[in-house]
Amino acid sequence: MEGMAGAASYVQAVQALPLRLREEALSLPEGARARAEELRLRAGWPMTALIDEAERPLGGPPVEPGELERLVEIASGASLHTVLDQVRRGYLTMEGGHRIGLCGTAALQEGEIRSLRAISSANLRIARQVRGAAAPVLDGLCPGGRLTDTLILAPPGLGKTTLLRDLIRSVSEGEGCVPLRVALADERGEVAALYRGLPQLEVGRRTDVTEGCPKAQGLMLLLRAMNPQVLAVDEITAPEDGRALSEAAGCGVTLLATAHGEDRADLERRPLYRPLLEAGLFRFLVRIRRAGEGRAYTVEELR
User: Fold this and answer.
1) 55-87 as b/e, with b when 16 or more CB fall inside 10 Å?
2) Is the Cβ–Cβ distance between 284 and 124 less than 8 Å?
3) Taking the complete model, does pTM exceed 0.90, yes or no?
4) What is the mean pLDDT of the chain?
């Protein structure tokens, strides 16, 4: 069933491609469609699919610059001005939560990117909801039935965002735990994937989302405006993110966040994360590692 859903998501995502490239993408067999994570389009080179962590050429002729321009036109519904803020940040979110990363020549105004022109490459990432991804760890993170402060840790590409999304959904819906109000600072739109104000990926009925602003600012906005019981953020990447989380913790909010890393020792060595551990911001650490063709989860108590 999961494979069928994955293949259906792939078919939905490739509708943004110009006709020639769409037909090329649909030449993949269903099993490969279900495992494909991205389609990479680079001007002057054939389109490739990222499958099982390897880029696989699809066999067609090189992508033309005009096809990249047409991709953006289709994905924006022929209304580029409505998505210009996203394009300035180098991506575009489509219906269904699929996301197109963009590269090209930046047009600057007063030192800030105003738009991208002469697009040179695009990365179409296929969005897939994995309901139940949090089931292996949910009980361990909810002593007494209520979620407590949790940090999810893994190297890139092992599903941190997928696990975070399903934890948010589970807590917001009260699946296997006490239902709580969740506020999500989704700077790059990768967790909820707002499209015309609606989350394209399930984050639950009690979840409020801010998208597009820096994480630290988004966290403070949500804390002041939405009276959350849980404050969630994907990828702590800057000192100001940590300071915002520390301030929120002082307000009695439960924290839920992700970070890149291997293990607790790795976090303790890194100046960005060490203060968060020393301050005891998180009670639990969830580590994700590869186990054969799947993922293994380990829950470790930090305080």
Assistant:
1) eeebeeeebeeebbebbbebbbeeeeeebeebb
2) no
3) no
4) 90
Structure tokens at 28: 């993949």
Q: In what order do the strands lie in the sheet with 112-125?
A: 54-57, 48-51, 36-42, 112-125, 99-109, 91-93
Q: Would you call 123 helix, strand, or coil by DSSP? A: strand
pLDDT for res 52: 86
Q: Where are any strands of DSSP class E within the chain? A: 36-42, 48-51, 54-57, 91-93, 99-109, 112-125, 150-154, 182-186, 194-195, 198-199, 207-211, 230-233, 254-260, 284-291, 294-301
Amino acid at 73: E
Give the pLDDT mean for 200-206.
Answer: 96
The C-alpha atoms of residue 43 and residue 211 are separated, in whole angstroms, by 30
